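Write out this protein's structure.
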Amino acid sequence: MRYDLDDLRLFLHIVSEGSITGGAHRMHLSLPSASARVRSLEHHAGVALLIRGRRGVRPTPAGTALARHARDVLAQTARLESAVASYTRSPSAPLTLLGGGSAMHRLVPQALISFLRAHPDIDVTVSESRTPQTVRMLADGEADLGVVLDDEARDCGLHMEPLGDDSLVVIGQAGGILAGRTALTYSEVAEHPLVGLDAESSLRRWIEEHLGPHAPVVRHRTTVASLSVLVSLAAAGVGLAVVPRRAIDPHQPLDVCELGDPWARRHHLLAWGVKDRTASTATTALAEHLRHAALSEPSFRNAHAHAHAHADADAVGQQPFHDG
């Protein structure tokens, strides 16, 4: 049988999210359309590919095999497109990728490693940029892709898609003053000594802008330029820190509390420049690597693991857990 590449991408997203609803969201498809594509895949394969349950879906052994080979097929396709595109794209014109400090911590580097290895003929210029500047540069044709924050990029007219959770949390030494707490407001956090990022960092400025003129006075024991250093200082008990959840190593011993202020809940979006995004296979390939990097992050998986569980049961066929 012939496999449609979009069907393979959809299946991989479903497996990664553990949810047909989540996979449909990633592909900008309706849930009925995504369910129909999965049923078509299973019909042509002649075997069930997913096990449906109340908490979502998981691949059957055949589905696991399909997912493994689908990753190889899509990677080979990206390399094929890159090889052909290299004859039309000048080596002196690298792709331009912009993102804020949070995105630059782990998301962008992870995507760059896989992309540059897979596309040795394509260069990428990467710059840290706050969302308003990124939006302006994308709209002016000065950049190809940008990782932006949802609340600062609304109604900007650019093509955008969800890329993952970037909500802020409070971290401190394991067993320290956060022990037993599940959530704090920023005013409560400010009652304790903090460690923070440099005053000119995009995250520090973003927080201060959202706190406004009546922000509580805080004591910063020190400020640093790197999120990695900031997390290490908090883990060592130097002070509390407000960081994006994605900045936390899941294996590092830390106490983590939700930041209860509404502005702390934010999401990354992948924004495209004004040029026709189908005209550059290189840009499309880089976008795919950014999506894959976002999906592989623990914070993204944790945030979405249960978000779509019940919706799938109602959408797949007449019988909730036995789609045919």
